[in-house]
Amino acid sequence: MTSGRSFDRKGNRSRELDVIIYNKNFPVLQIGTDSLVPIEGVVAAFETKSTLTAAELRDAFKKCLSLAKLRKQYARLHQIGGVMVRDQPPSFDELDKMFPGFYVYGFNGYPADAKSLLSVLWDCIQSQNLGRLSVPRIVVTPTAIALTQA
């Protein structure tokens, strides 16, 4: 576990993330004060806020999108035990398992009510035309929880 950024094989970097949980078999690169984790090693990322405001939530969405834009290198098996596997792009379910989860937590809650929180979440998704892999999986405060739909 570290804070820092993730990067892909083309040199693209995510924005600064509060917490990155990564597979210990991948290196964490230290460049100055920056910790860099290859996207292939990232299991999950978290944004934690003292109080989750609308502005903080929008910022968390931008960070989530910056992580989602990184491309993992993967190889699909074409044959498993003598059985040919159809060569096709990964399904959404496979992509969900391949890409890291992104989670947001507000320690002191959201200053308005839960309905207002959901309104801001929906506004962020619609205004940025975000896809399923580009939004946080869970946003939690002591008073509310919002889950993305599968």
Description:
The chain has 150 residues and is an alpha/beta fold. It has one domain. It contains 3 helices and 10 strands; from the N terminus they run E-E-E-E-E-H-E-E-H-E-H-E-E. The strands form 2 sheets. The chain has an 8-stranded mixed β-sheet, covered by helices on one side. Strands 6-7 form a two-stranded antiparallel ribbon. Strand 3 and strand 4 (34-38) form a beta hairpin. Helix 1 (54-68) crosses helix 3 (114-127). It is globular.
Number of domains: 1
| SSE arrangement, N to C | EEEEEHEEHEHEE
Average pLDDT score: 83
End-to-end separation in angstroms reads 27 Å
Helix content: 10-25%
Compute the number of helices: 3
> Biggest sheet, in brief?
8 strands, mixed
Strand order of the largest sheet: 3-4-1-2-5-8-9-10
Strand content: 25-35%
Kindly provide the radius of gyration, computed on alpha-carbon positions and rounded to a whole number of angstroms: 17 Å
Total count of strands: 10
